[in-house]
């Protein structure tokens, strides 16, 4: 049942970029203001299928806001948010006639993992995963629980299926949160500083799950301060500062960075 | 004051246990009906008060400020006699009691719910949205269960207050504990004995309600604990055990 739904969503193959790889999501000239402070000054980001994008930069640089614009948890003031070729943002100036997709539809393609895990504290690990499967995918209780169990097994937590979030360590909670997002078969996964709230000794288990996910070819956009992890998985590295994308680069970005500010930042964290 | 010559006829309580308990039953039924109604109305008011529409929010907050300030005695007289005079419609004393309590306590429940809804972390709603759930489903399956857990102790205290407030409905002739006590006293003239009995009944009920709400609270805590939780989550735990067992034998 899940398989058939997944296949139905594969009607976006016309979005091929100049390098021949499929563009999954595209931000163009995205602006966002909180009160009087503009936190995104027109950022662009193009993510292709299977790509692992790492976004880094100092606090307050707009990394999280950019990530949250992708699934419209932050509604951009202006700019284009295209996922699978469909416009979900306000659109670029001039093409207001573009028909916008609904956030609910967008979020079926985009999974998200939060810094604070955001598991539902009143539900078991299993039902944290089963609830969205029932609510957003319409699975029956039994199907949802079986799917949830297999997702828990994938992150090595099936024995904890009946545990409540308060009974799990931070690392385990984040692994459940990853399993929960993956259970909905997203096309792209967003990670908003997934290890920043964890004790140092728990970071490894979460990164291990993310590393394995990257190896399966999942498209990922990761905001992180874990520079070693970024260096390891980042196909596209994006350095942000003061609401601007200051510098981007591919795999050798960390070694051959020419941007002075990005260099200084990398030097201070690595 | 010389009390030496007064004899306390404690036996009166036992002799009239039936009628006293019946009065207590009336008090509980009136207050429980009002509890259910004011929980529903209170939730609606809380949502209205949190509405982004200024007019809706202002109406709800005016309601709260007006009805929170009215004593139960005034409220029931207003409903019972006022409606009859203004609209020619006569409520029964039971209806008047339920309506009076609901008007007052929905205002309190509005505030209790509002505080509880605000206390649910905003990340919970965001997680629901990111998982593709509708706002209604997030409210019902994510926010309300957590808000209810926060609100339950306050709702329990309020319910004890509601039962006590039914005592003022003696004034319109509702035959609850105080009215029964008044009637018995006018025949026997044993105010100390009879009102001690009335007080004891209220205290016992308060203990029982406290016990019940504690059980509900324990059931809503995570992980749920207590006998109630064991019964309610038994099937779910069994299903989880089966799912785990399929892989780990």
| Cα gyration radius of chain A (Å) | 18 Å
Low-confidence stretches of chain B: none
At the fourth level of CATH, the homologous superfamily of chain A is P-loop containing nucleotide triphosphate hydrolases
The CATH homologous superfamily of chain B is called MetI-like
CATH class of chain B: Mainly Alpha
The largest sheet of chain A is: 6 strands, mixed
Sequence of secondary-structure elements of chain A: HEEEHEEHEHHHEHEHEEH
| Tally of DSSP β-strands of chain B | 0
- Record the strand order, biggest sheet of chain A: 6-7-8-3-9-10
Mean pLDDT score of chain B, rounded? 93
Query: What is the gyration radius of chain B calculated from CA atoms?
Result: 23 Å
Can you tell me about this structure?
The complex is a heterodimer of chains A (270) and B (249). With 270 residues, chain A is of the alpha/beta class. Chain A has helices at residues 2-8, 63-70, 103-109, 125-137, 141-154, 170-182, 200-215, 227-233, 260-269, and strands at residues 23-34, 37-48, 52-56, 78-83, 86-87, 110-113, 188-192, 219-223, 236-241, 244-249. Chain A has a single domain (2-269), classed as P-loop containing nucleotide triphosphate hydrolases (Rossmann fold). Helices cover 35% and strands 23% of the residues of chain A. In chain A, helix 4 (125-137) crosses helix 5, helix 4 (125-137) runs parallel beside helix 6 and helix 5 crosses helix 6. Chain A is globular, with a radius of gyration of 18 Å. Mean pLDDT of chain A is 88; it is low at 1-14. With 249 residues, chain B is mainly α. The longest helix of chain B has 33 residues, at 17-49. The chains are: A alpha/beta (270), B mainly alpha (249).
């Amino acid at each position: 049942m899940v398989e058939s739904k997944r296949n139905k969503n594969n009607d976006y193959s016309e979005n091929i970029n100049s390098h021949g790889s499929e563009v999954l999501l595209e931000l163009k000239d995205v602006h966002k203001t909180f009160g009087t402070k503009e936190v995104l000054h027109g950022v662009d980001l193009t993510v292709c299928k299977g790509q692992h994008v790492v976004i880094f930069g100092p606090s307050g640089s707009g990394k999280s806001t950019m990530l949250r614009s992708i699934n419209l948890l932050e509604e951009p003031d202006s700019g284009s948010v295209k996922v699978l070729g469909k416009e979900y943002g306000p659109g670029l100036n001039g093409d207001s006639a573009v028909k916008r997709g609904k956030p609910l539809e967008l979020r079926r393609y985009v999974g998200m993992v939060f810094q604070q895990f955001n598991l539902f504290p009143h539900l078991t690990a299993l039902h944290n995963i089963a609830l969205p499967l029932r609510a957003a995918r319409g699975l029956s209780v039994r199907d949802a629980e079986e799917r949830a169990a297999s997702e828990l097994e994938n992150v090595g937590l099936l024995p904890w299926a009946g545990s409540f979030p308060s009974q799990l360590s931070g690392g385990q909670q984040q692994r459940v949160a990853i399993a929960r997002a993956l259970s909905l078969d997203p096309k792209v996964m967003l990670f908003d500083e997934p290890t920043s709230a964890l004790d140092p000794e728990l970071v490894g288990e979460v990164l291990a799950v993310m590393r394995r996910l990257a190896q399966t070819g999942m498209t990922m956009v990761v905001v992180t301060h874990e520079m070693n992890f970024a260096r390891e998985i980042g196909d596209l590295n994006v350095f942000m500062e003061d609401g601007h994308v200051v510098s981007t680069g591919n795999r050798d970005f960390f070694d051959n960075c020419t941007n002075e500010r990005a260099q200084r930042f990398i030097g201070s964290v690595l | 004051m010389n009390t030496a010559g007064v004899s306390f006829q404690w036996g009166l309580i036992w002799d009239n246990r039936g009628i006293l308990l019946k009065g207590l039953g009336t008090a509980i039924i009136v207050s429980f009906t009002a509890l259910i109604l004011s929980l529903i109305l209170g939730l609606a008011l809380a949502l209205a008060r949190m509405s982004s529409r200024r007019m809706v929010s202002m109406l709800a907050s005016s309601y709260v400020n007006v009805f929170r300030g009215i004593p139960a005695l005034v409220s029931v007289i207003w409903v019972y006699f006022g409606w009859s005079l203004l609209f020619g419609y006569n409520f029964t004393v039971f209806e008047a009691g339920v309506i009076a309590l609901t008007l007052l306590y929905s205002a309190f429940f509005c505030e209790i719910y509002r505080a509880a809804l605000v206390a649910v972390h905003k990340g919970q709603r965001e997680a629901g949205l990111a998982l593709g759930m509708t706002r209604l489903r997030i409210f019902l399956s994510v926010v309300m269960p957590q808000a209810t857990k926060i609100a339950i102790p306050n709702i329990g205290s309020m319910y004890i207050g509601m039962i006590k407030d039914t005592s003022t409905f003696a004034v319109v002739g509702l035959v609850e504990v105080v009215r029964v006590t008044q009637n018995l006293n006018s025949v026997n003239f044993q105010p100390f004995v009879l009102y001690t009995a009335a007080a004891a009944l209220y205290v016992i009920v308060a203990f029982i309600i406290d016990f019940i709400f504690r059980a509900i609270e324990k059931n809503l805590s995570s992980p749920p604990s207590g006998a109630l939780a064991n019964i309610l989550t038994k099937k779910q735990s069994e299903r989880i055990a089966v799912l785990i067992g399929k892989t780990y034998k």
